[in-house]
Amino acid sequence: MKKKTSIVVAGSILLILSLGAFAYFRNVEFQKNFEAPKRTAQTVQFRVGKEATLVGVINNLQYYGFIKDNDAFGYALEHTKDTTLTNQSAIKVGENTIDTQSVYSISQSMTAGELSDVLLNKGSYEDCNNGCPPGLFYPELLPGGELKPSEFEWVQTYEDCVKARGTLTSEQYKGPKKCVIEGKEFTKGKEGFETFRGG
Questions:
Q1: What is the pLDDT along the chain (199 residues), one digit of tens a residue?
Q2: Measured at the alpha carbon of residue 155, what is the angle toward residues 152 and 156, in degrees to the nearest 5?
Q3: Residue 66 neighbours by CB distance under 10 Å
Q4: Which of 78, 119, 129, 161 is the most exposed place for a label (fewest CB within 10 A)?
């Protein structure tokens, strides 16, 4: 009888230890879904347009390598503190909101919590009435998040921009002549370029 009891107790202890180990490793695997996809990565501009949806935002972030798991990121969005005022066209995430018509500085080296904080609290309104640079990301990305090679990398000056058939300022514009190509704005007679923000 004592032998049977010992076997039952040993079996119970083994079962409890096995369940505990399973729960621990399952939790560790679950926590990995919240980690940053990369240790280091460049910062890019992510544009959330007027017609964007929560599913679209999450799927794009996953497709371009900014999050590891859609469900884990959705959880992070719902449980990160939202400190901004809600606008009418914002995307609802439980009690939180992501502003549309906004640009966000994000990186693949951000955890799900850090990325959630940026989307909930750190957007910059973008007025696209006169046009915005095309695409979701600036600079443009390939699926997985690598930078897309530019066919206009050789453009380094205003004159290069004109040769590449960039967009020139209107003749009625009174300021210095400008040329815009692939989100870069060159000013005639000035070194380098600035990031074109629309307007």
A1: 556 666 666 656 665 655 554 555 555 576 889 999 998 888 899 999 888 999 999 999 999 999 999 999 999 999 999 998 777 789 999 999 999 989 999 999 999 999 999 999 999 888 766 666 667 887 778 788 777 767 777 888 899 898 888 888 766 677 888 888 877 889 898 888 887 766 5
A2: 145
A3: 26
A4: 129
Whether omega before 133 lies within 30 degrees of 0, making that bond cis, reads: no
DSSP-derived secondary structure letter, 43? E
Residues pairing with 187 in the sheet:
178
Q: Which two tokens stand for residue 35?
A: 């980690």
Give which of 132, 136, 50, 131 is closest to 89, Cα–Cα: 50
CA-derived radius of gyration, the chain: 25
